[in-house]
């Protein structure tokens, strides 16, 4: 069995990294230790890097067809082996990013002024996409079934936008919850778009169930291997569109109106290598990140027993409820930035003041530095 060492630090400064080099643009100070945007500090799997190096050595990067059996077969087999789910590769679509897919689907299925229902707190990329297209973001609290049904039944509700698993909370939806969402959407004539980019980072004891198992009527699953295998800068995402006519319309729009018929070949290469050879690396990484999350839980709960914080069910983002401490969000951010020299996302970005989102997709020592800085700042304010 191959072993992977996730403790080896990688210097990302000076690489045009949004998390590292772009931190001052968001937090107003240079040189902060960042725990922000949801990419990881780990190199992509060595199996992926080897495939990329081989492709680069070929030296020709011409227009490329994503509808090839190597890519389609890798996706199909990944769902079969990883999620025990059969998918119809004739319903696959391809796009530069998951948010690009979301925008295209919203243009297809909604008009300006229509409502898109989401669970709150909500990933800020959803808010930007929906607002940017002139649609209304209609939020319902996570876990409030009555509020969800009321929102879906509301005037001009056209789409239920799921995040599965949920960002920023890391919640993994149960089979009963997903079946209920499908039933409600069908009852109220609402399409469903399920963003499943965090699906492959579900922690032990939980199971992700793809929307393909539940979809009725008009629906799409949108996802990418870029998040779990850490190659978002290569771009690239794919989706599954349930209805044949909708599938054809999506492909037509991408190839004509958007001029995006040819994908980035290195993204295809990385996806195929990740899905064919990267499972061992991903499993080892999930175990390592679970250790980081346990470190956060132990540190915070030791310092503030009343928090009783538990790690998320999926992902590497620690969504931490600090409301019981009565700390002002702006004051906490000043302490973190000006005194501790760290950048941690405030909950207000996701519509939830009083929370923070701490990215621990990083080496253990960096994760330790982040939670210790957060703990010191909180102690000074409580």
What's a concise summary of this model?
By secondary structure, the protein is an alpha/beta fold. It has helices spanning about 25, 45-60, 70-85, 100-110, 125-130, 145-155, 175-185, 245-255, 265-275, 280-305, 330-340, 365-380; strands spanning about 35, 90-95, 115-120, 135-140, 155-165, 190-195, 220-225, 235-240, 315-320, 340-345, 355-360.
Distinctive features:
41% helix; single chain; alpha/beta; four-stranded mixed β-sheet; 382 residues
Order of helices and strands, N to C?
HEHHEHEHEHEHEEEHHHEHEEH
Low-confidence stretches: none
Structural class: alpha/beta
Largest sheet: spatial strand order: 2-8-7-6-5-3-4
Strand content: 5-15%
Shape: globular
Mean pLDDT, rounded to whole units?
97
- Give the proportion of residues in helices: 40-55%
The tally of beta strands, per DSSP, is: 11
Mind summarizing the main beta sheet?
7 strands, mixed
Separation of the first and last Cα atoms: 48 Å
| Helix count from the secondary structure assignment | 12
Rg, alpha carbons? 21 Å
């Amino acid at each position: 069995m191959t072993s992977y060492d996730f403790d080896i630090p990688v210097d990302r400064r000076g690489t045009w990294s949004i998390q590292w080099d772009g931190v001052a643009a968001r937090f107003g100070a240079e040189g902060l230790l960042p725990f922000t945007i949801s990419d990881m500090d780990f190199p992509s799997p060595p199996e992926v890097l080897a495939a990329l190096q081989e492709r680069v050595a070929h030296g020709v990067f011409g227009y490329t067809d994503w509808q090839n059996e190597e890519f389609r077969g890798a996706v199909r087999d990944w769902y079969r082996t990883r999620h025990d789910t059969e998918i119809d590769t004739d319903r696959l679509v391809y796009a530069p990013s998951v948010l690009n897919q979301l925008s295209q689907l919203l243009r297809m299925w909604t008009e300006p002024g229509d409502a898109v229902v989401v669970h709150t707190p909500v990933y800020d990329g959803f808010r930007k996409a929906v607002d940017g297209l002139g649609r209304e973001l209609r939020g319902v609290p996570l876990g409030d079934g009555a509020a969800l049904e009321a929102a879906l039944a509301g005037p001009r509700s056209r789409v239920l936008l799921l995040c599965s698993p949920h960002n920023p909370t890391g919640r993994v939806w149960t089979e009963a919850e997903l079946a209920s969402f499908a039933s409600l959407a069908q009852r109220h004539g609402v399409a469903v778009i399920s963003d499943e980019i965090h699906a492959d980072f579900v922690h032990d004891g939980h199971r992700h169930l793809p929307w393909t198992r539940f979809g009725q009527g008009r629906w799409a699953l949108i996802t990418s291997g870029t998040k779990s295998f850490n190659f978002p800068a290569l771009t690239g995402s794919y989706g599954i569109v349930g209805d044949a006519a909708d599938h054809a319309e999506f492909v037509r729009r991408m190839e004509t109106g958007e001029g995006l018929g040819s994908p980035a070949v290195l993204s295809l290469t990385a996806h195929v290598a990740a899905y064919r050879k990267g499972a061992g690396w991903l499993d080892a990484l999930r175990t390592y990140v679970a250790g980081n999350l346990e470190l956060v839980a132990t540190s915070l709960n030791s310092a503030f027993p009343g928090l009783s914080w538990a790690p998320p069910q999926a992902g590497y983002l620690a969504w931490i409820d600090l409301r019981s401490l009565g700390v002002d969000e702006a004051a906490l951010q000043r302490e973190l930035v000006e005194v501790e020299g760290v950048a941690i996302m405030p909950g207000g970005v996701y519509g939830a003041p009083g929370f923070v989102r701490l990215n621990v997709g990083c080496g253990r020592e960096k994760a330790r530095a982040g939670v210790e800085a957060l703990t010191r700042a909180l102690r000074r304010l409580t």
